[in-house]
Design goal:
Layout: E1 2-8, H1 12-26, E2 32-34, E3 42-50, H2 55-66, E4 72-82, E5 90-96, H3 100-112, E6 126-132, H4 138-147, E7 152-158, E8 160-167, E9 174-182
Antiparallel strand pairs: 1-3, 1-8, 2-6, 4-5, 4-7, 5-6, 8-9
Helix pairs in contact: 1-4, 2-3
């Protein structure tokens, strides 16, 4: 079994801008386990554990479903926390783009043919910057989040969707691409 998900990547310049803000957040010394910038991606569908022989059928279904799906632009803007700023569990950078919800929905629908259960919660595009362990130092983290609430980090052209394998390690997850599907320019 492999742990898998479907995602898109942002432009390196956008990742660099968000990484600068993550450094400001880290300097607050809040009790947060920070994610590594090289692993940042927009997850469109988390698959969980799948058999290795499911990779080819998943890529084929995605290829059929997305062969005429247009590429889209994503704006990275603002910071926040899930479920909210009073009871934070995840610190995130926001992602916005007209085609993102349609892309996510098309993937969800296509994978139903392979008996992949639909996501139980609404699609909320974001990059996970860190996972809150406790509220120690949260006031300082919140000050940075509030100051950057509407900051625009840049735009990315999304022109492919990738199926990834996620290998969990004590130092964090390592993501390996298993295949990609190009979107229509």
């Amino acid at each position: 079994m492999i742990r898998a998900f479907i995602a898109v990547n942002l432009a390196p310049v956008v990742i660099e801008e968000i990484a600068k803000i993550q450094l400001a957040l880290q300097s607050t010394r809040g009790d947060i386990r920070w994610t590594r910038a090289e692993g940042w991606h927009l997850t469109l569908k988390f698959l969980g554990d799948i058999a290795r022989d499911q990779v080819a059928p998943i890529l084929e279904v995605l290829s059929q479903a997305l062969r005429t799906h247009p590429s889209c632009r994503v704006v990275a803007q603002g910071l926040g926390a899930f479920p909210n700023l009073k009871r934070p569990r995840v610190v995130w950078a926001g992602l916005y783009g007209e085609g993102l919800a349609a892309l996510s929905e098309k993937i969800e629908t296509a994978l139903m043919s392979l008996d992949c259960p639909p996501e139980g919660r609404a699609f909320t595009p974001h990059l996970t910057l860190g996972r809150v362990r406790s509220l120690q130092g949260w006031e300082q983290v919140l000050a940075v989040i509030t100051a950057q609430e509407h900051t625009r980090f840049g735009e990315s052209e999304i022109n492919q969707v990738t199926l990834y394998q996620s290998d969990l390690h004590p130092t964090g997850a390592v993501y390996r691409p298993l295949g990609s599907i190009a979107l229509t320019p």
